[in-house]
Design brief:
- The complex is a heterotetramer, with 2 copies of chain A (80 residues) and 2 copies of chain B (149 residues).
- With 80 residues, chain A is of the alpha+beta class.
- Chain A has one domain (2-74): Beta-grasp domain (Ubiquitin-like (UB roll), Roll), CATH 3.10.20.30.
- In chain A, 22% of the residues lie in helices and 31% in strands.
- Chain B has a domain at 2-33 and 51-121: Alpha-Beta Complex (Aldehyde Oxidoreductase, domain 3).
- Helices cover 27% and strands 38% of the residues of chain B.
- Chain B contains 3 helices and 9 strands, in the order βαβββαβββαββ.
- Chain B has helices at residues 12-15, 52-69, 100-117, and strands at residues 2-6, 26-33, 37-38, 41-50, 72-80, 82-85, 89-97, 120-126, 131-133.
- In chain B, the strands form 2 sheets. In chain B, strands 3, 4, 6, 8 and 9 form a 5-stranded antiparallel β-sheet that branches. In chain B, strands 1-5-7-2 form a 4-stranded mixed β-sheet, with helices on one face.
- Chain B is elongated, with a radius of gyration of 16 Å.
- Classes of the chains: A alpha+beta (80), B alpha+beta (149).
- Chain A binds chain B through residues 9-11, 14-15, 44-45, 49, 51, 53, 56-58, 72, 74-80, and chain B through 32, 48-51, 53-54, 57-58, 79, 90-91, 111, 114-123, 133-139, 146, 148-149.
C-alpha cells in the first residue's frame, strides 16, 4: 500500500465535493486509482475520454504510481 | 512562440506583434467567441477552468508541433479562464507564414489540437438556471458533443 | 458585409466589430503582409493599384458567394492601395460563423477568390532599383508566379 | 466603325504611356479591340490571363461593343 494524493478538476471536483484527498491505495497504476476513485465518487466518464497527470506532467493511464505521487484526474476537456 | 492561460481579456492586436517577421506574407488568426446557444439550448454565460501549468505546457507543445509540421514563422495562443459573457473571446490562436496555405492549415491544426488535448473545462449556464460541464457524463444537464465553435 | 479598397491603414480590430453576432462562436481572419522577398528576390516596397468601383463590386460579390456557400454569419474585406512598406497589412479578410470549420473554409475561399478575380495590381520595388508588375508579362523584370502570401 | 474609349491599368498603362485613348475601330467585341490595342502597344498577356470591363462592369471577352463604350483593359490581377 502507498499513500498518494488525488486531485480533482471541474465536474470531478464537484462530484467528489473536494479539490483533493489523500488515499492509501493498492493501485499500481493511474488507471487502477481512477477505478477506485470513480467508484467512490460516481465519476461516469471512461478513462478513454479522460486524462491523467502525475506530479504536473501528463501521463499514460498505465503509468505506475509511487509513494507520495500527486495524481491529477482531468475529466473530458472542452477548451475553445 | 507563446501559449498562456489567462484570466485577463485577450487583446488580439497586441498578440499579433509576436507574429511579426520580415519574411511573413500571411497571418491567420482564430478567435473563439462565447455563443448564446449550444446544441439548440440558450446559454447565458460560460465559465472556463484550467490546470494552468499543464495547459501551458501542452499548449506550447502543440505550437511547437505546428511550427515543425507546417512552414510557419511564428505561432501563439491564449485561453481565458473564469466567467465569460456572450461575445467575449475565450480563445485566440495566431500564426504567421510566408504563404497563406501553411498559415490556414497550421491555425486550424492548433485550435483542433488545443480543444482535444489541453486541460480546460467549460461550464455553461442556461436561461433556466441550470448549468452543465461540456463533454462530461454527469447525470445532470450535460452536452455530449462540443459544438461551441 | 462590406468590401472596400482603401488608401488608409487597415485596422483589423475595428473591422471585427462588423463580424459580431450573438450566435457567432468562431471568427477567422486573414492578413496579407508585405514580405521582404518574392521568389528569392529582396523586395523593398510594394505599390498596389486598383479599379476601385469594379474591385468593390467584385469583392462584395465574393463575400456574398461565401455567405451563401458556407454557413457564415458575417464576412468583410479590405484591400490597401498605394505604396506599402515591409510588414504593412495589404489585405484583410474576416468572417464569423457558429462553427470554426465553416469559418476557416470561407475565409480561405474569399482570399483565394479575391486574388484571382479582383482588379488589383501589385508592383514590387527591388533593392537594385528595378521594379516589376507581378503576374504580368512585360519583358522587363517580372514575376511569373504570385508568391506573396 | 464605332468610337470607343480604351482605358489602361497598371502595366498596360505604363506600356501604352497613357491612361486612356479614344479609338475609331471596326472591332465588334472586347476581344477584337484587345487584339488591336495589344498589337499597337505591345501588350504581351493573353486574354485568358486578363480581364475586361465595359462601362465599369466586368464583361466577357466576347461582349459586343457599342458606340461610346468605355472599355477597361485589366492586366493579370495580383491582389493580396
Amino acid at each position: 500500500m502507498i499513500d498518494v494524493t488525488a486531485q480533482y478538476f471541474a465536474v470531478f471536483r464537484e462530484q467528489a465535493g473536494r479539490n483533493l484527498e489523500t488515499l492509501t491505495t493498492s493501485a499500481a497504476t493511474a488507471e487502477e486509482l481512477y477505478a477506485e476513485v470513480s467508484a467512490k465518487h460516481g465519476f461516469a466518464d471512461s478513462v478513454a475520454r479522460c486524462k491523467v497527470a502525475i506530479n504536473d506532467e501528463l501521463a499514460a493511464w498505465t503509468a505506475p504510481l509511487a509513494e507520495g505521487d500527486v495524481v491529477l484526474f482531468f475529466p473530458p476537456v472542452a477548451g475553445g | 512562440m507563446s501559449f498562456e492561460i489567462t484570466d485577463q481579456r485577450i487583446d488580439p492586436e497586441a498578440l499579433k506583434a509576436d507574429l511579426r517577421h520580415e519574411t511573413a506574407g500571411a497571418c491567420v488568426s482564430f478567435e473563439g467567441w462565447v455563443r448564446d446557444h449550444n446544441d439548440g439550448e440558450p446559454v447565458t454565460a460560460l465559465e472556463y477552468e484550467a490546470h494552468a501549468s499543464v495547459a501551458n505546457k501542452e499548449g506550447l507543445q502543440i505550437l511547437t508541433e505546428a511550427v515543425e509540421r507546417f512552414d510557419l514563422l511564428a505561432a501563439s495562443g491564449r485561453h481565458r479562464v473564469g466567467r465569460l459573457e456572450i461575445g467575449e473571446c475565450a480563445v485566440w490562436v495566431g500564426v504567421s507564414a510566408a504563404h497563406r496555405g501553411a498559415a490556414f492549415d497550421a491555425c486550424r491544426y492548433i485550435i483542433d489540437q488545443l480543444k482535444q488535448r489541453v486541460p480546460i473545462w467549460k461550464k455553461e449556464y442556461y436561461r433556466d438556471g441550470l448549468s452543465g460541464w461540456i463533454n462530461c457524463v454527469t447525470g445532470t444537464p450535460f452536452k455530449a458533443r462540443d459544438t461551441t465553435s
